[in-house]
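Appendix B. Raw example, untouched.
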Amino acid sequence: MLEANKILKKINLRPTTQRTAIIEYILQKHKVHITATKLITHLKKKKFNISLATIYNNLNELADKGILRKLHVNNDKMWFDSNLQDHYHFYDSEKDELIDIDKNEISFSKIPKIPRGKIKDSINIIISLKSKN
């Protein structure tokens, strides 16, 4: 709990019970890919009462503060990634999970010209997987 509170204070967020529980989960898992739905399921198993809206708000706030990275995997699901290093993902739709791909495993021969007045912020690649059958 102390480490979670230190992180929250460092990013100027009040260490509420909900935020502390979310940060503790992220710290416990080290590198985690999480959705709000998966997180609420985990917290409710631990008998922690929290609303889905509160989880979404906190995950988005943590992403805005640079603690998590948002990933749009498909139109109906937002993922949050605690691994802030440059990397890409496989998405296994059958297991509903993201798997890291090291940035050195993908190479680009060319990227499009960036529009005037803009700089590249990030490159997100998600490769969707399914069974061969």
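End of appendix B.
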